[in-house]
Design brief:
The structure is a single chain. Helix content is 47%, strand content 12%. It has a 4-stranded parallel β-sheet with strand order 2-1-5-8. A hairpin with a 7-residue loop joins β6 and β7. The radius of gyration is 22 Å and the shape is elongated.
């Protein structure tokens, strides 16, 4: 019997240790290859190799041209840009059909970099750091709501948490809500993710609530697409100890009458210490989960994605 489905994540093949780079080497990411791989289905992609370039091959860089960005060989000066753009468009369409939940891409790559890729210009001089890899650009154009990350971001607690929240929420959207869409299902999904949105963007949380509330009076496909886009945008926003602290205090209010004065004070002290940077979110959250188990909680609270938006083994929040 098959177990529960897992998020389906694209990944630059070199990050899995595959020798696909121009010099036959790789850039294996231990986190992606050894940790993330245990909880998601990985789809390796190497735009250069898949588009027909051999291994080894000459190194390349992005080069600004009057009509856009070229992909120029450092040794020969050949521009591979048009061929890569055509391939990237086709491959992005194929990946869209696979219903990906996210993508981990190689930093600084002229095909896979997400941001700050070097762009060279006629006449020389220092390159700008405002480029995107040609494959990544095609991927974003085809699947604009797809959560993306460079491998280095996963070493940062905050950036990793944001990416993981997005890919696992995207997976829940895809496999539960979008698999059996109804206005009621959307309202239930929104209720279960209320606190997760609040911790990232209170403003977008309110907008998501309005979208969900109007689902019965609008075309459902349009509403779901708008909701998914806003949900991913909300979870991409930067959280802060203050935002998390407000959510934790909001939850505490639902234990009215169940906790002693000492228990409440213990929890509020941990929240204040978290806000002051003395420890991570996991400390007050662990005590909160203890209260949920010990005192019981309403079904809506037990169902909150905020309490565990992704497997704990993937990193502390």
């Amino acid at each position: 019997m098959n177990g529960p489905s897992r998020p389906r994540i694209g990944v630059s093949a070199c990050l899995l240790g595959e020798g696909v780079r121009f010099d036959t080497g790789h850039k294996r990411s231990d986190y992606v290859a050894s940790t993330l791989s245990r909880f998601v289905e990985l789809i390796p992609v190497c735009p250069e190799v898949e588009s027909g370039m051999g291994v080894p091959r000459e190194s390349m860089r992005l080069f600004a041209t009057p009509t856009g960005l070229g992909l120029v060989g450092n040794r020969t000066g050949v521009d591979y840009g048009d061929g890569m753009a055509a391939f990237a468009g086709r491959r992005a369409a194929e990946l869209a059909a696979l219903q990906l939940d996210g993508f981990v891409l190689k930093k600084d790559s002229p095909t896979c970099g997400v941001e700050r890729v070097r762009v060279y210009r006629q006449g020389g001089g220092q390159p700008s750091r405002d480029g995107r890899g040609l494959f990544t650009a095609a991927l974003q154009a085809r699947i604009p709501t797809l959560p993306l990350a460079e491998e280095g971001w996963l070493n940062d607690d905050g950036l990793r948490a944001s990416f993981l929240e997005r890919i696992f929420t995207h997976h829940r959207l895809r496999t539960s809500l979008l698999a059996a869409p109804t206005p009621r299902a959307l309202l239930e999904f929104h209720a279960d993710h209320k606190l997760l949105y609040m911790a990232r963007s209170p403003e977008r949380y309110r907008e998501l609530g309005r979208i969900a509330a109007q689902a019965a009076s609008r075309p459902l496909d349009t509403t779901l697409a708008l909701y998914a886009a806003q949900a991913m945008a909300a979870l991409a926003e930067r959280s802060t100890p203050g935002k998390h602290g407000n959510v934790l205090q909001h939850i505490l209010g639902y234990f009215k009458g169940a906790l002693s004065a000492a228990e409440k004070q213990e929890f509020l002290t941990l929240v204040d210490e978290f806000r002051a940077g003395l420890h991570g979110l996991v400390v007050p959250l662990t005590l909160l989960l203890h209260y949920v188990r010990r005192h019981g909680a309403a079904d809506w609270l037990r169902r909150q994605a905020y309490l565990q938006p992704y497997p704990r083994e993937l990193g502390a929040r």
